[in-house]
Amino acid sequence: MKVEILSSSTKDVLHTIQDVSIYTTIEEIKKYYQDVKPKLHPCRQAYRKELRGKFLDDDVTLRSLEFDNVARLYFKDLGPQVSWKTVFLTEYTGPFFLYLIFYLRPSFIYGKYAALAPRHHYVNIACAAYLFHFAKRVYETHYVHRFSHATMPIMNLFKNCSYYWIFACSIAYYINHPLYTLPYYGDLQVYGGFVLFMLNELGNYSSHMAFRNLRPEGTKERKIPMPTTNPFTLMFNLVSFPNYTYEIGSWVWFTFMTQSVMPGVFTLVGGLQMTAWAQKKHKACLKEFKDYPKGRKAIIPFIV
Question: Which of 74, 85, 112, 224 has the largest CB neighbor count within 10 A?
Fold first, then answer.
């Protein structure tokens, strides 16, 4: 079989590979093309069967694509790539240390007299909760998450970091401000909110562990997520992606316990994005698994 690699933009033939087996995979095609274009590492190559079709997975064979004698693949250069793990670690460690600057060195931000102002213990609790959240995320990136794709476009690094880092500074600025207004209901609001925040953090972690155990290391196997012996995973009976449900819950209660506007804005923006992700993945699950539980929603029980 002959393989023609065509440009997705001009439809011109960029390269032709002769005498290729019908069992050749897309991953092997990428390596063939890298031999011709050394700068095009396989991680930045993407191929489609149709010009506007979806990108083909690495394990797809030419035979499965049902070509005749000539396989025509539309090539797209994804641009410089960076590993998912690098992106996650960078975007999560940034807020951790940025928040600490506002908390430990208020004179850098608010002026030299800010360090003399007494700090209420509610501010300490907010700091502990915020740092715990992002320390957990860094831990999960190292030891829990298994990424189906090795890399992403390098521009995502700057986009994601800008989102997390700007919000980190905004949230830290108001909560650590010498004129910060304490929560109206005092201990009940702060301690109650903190307990509910931590419960949602545990639920988020439990969901991530459940997802991790569905995919054996080194494989792309997919299974229907189901509740385990962990009571937090009972949420799988109601929604497909309880990790997002618990994540939003964490920030709702963080906003409640701090009684600050910026955490609320962060919750709203992040919640809208996570809802969009959950709905897209939920539709994919319904399409992929014929016996997928019909009663489940994507992210919010009984609603969305």
Answer: 74
Residue 217 neighbours by CB under 8 Å, 6+ apart: 146
2-79 CATH fold: Ubiquitin-like (UB roll) (3.10.20)
Neighbour count for residue 3 (Cβ, 10 Å):
21
pLDDT digits (tens, 9 = 90+) for 150-169: 788 888 899 999 999 999 99
1-26 tens-digit pLDDT: 899 999 998 999 999 999 889 999 99
Is the pTM here over 0.85, yes or no? yes
CA distance 74 to 5: 6
Helices (H), 144-260: 155-175, 186-214, 242-258
- Sign of the alpha-carbon dihedral angle for 246, 252, 258, 260: positive
Buried b (16+ CB within 10 A) or exposed e, 142-158: eeeeeeeeebbeeeebe
Whether the CB-CB separation of 76 and 48 falls below 8 Å is answered with yes
Boundaries of every domain in the chain: 2-79, 82-288
Within its chain, how far is the Cα of 92 from the centroid?
11
Q: How far apart are CA 31 and CA 13, in angstroms?
A: 18
Average pLDDT for 58-69: 89
Q: Which residue type does 278 have?
A: A
User: Could you read off the pLDDT of 115-140 as tens digits, one per residue?
Assistant: 788 899 999 999 999 999 999 999 99
Give the DSSP H/E element, type plus range, for residue 5: strand 2-7
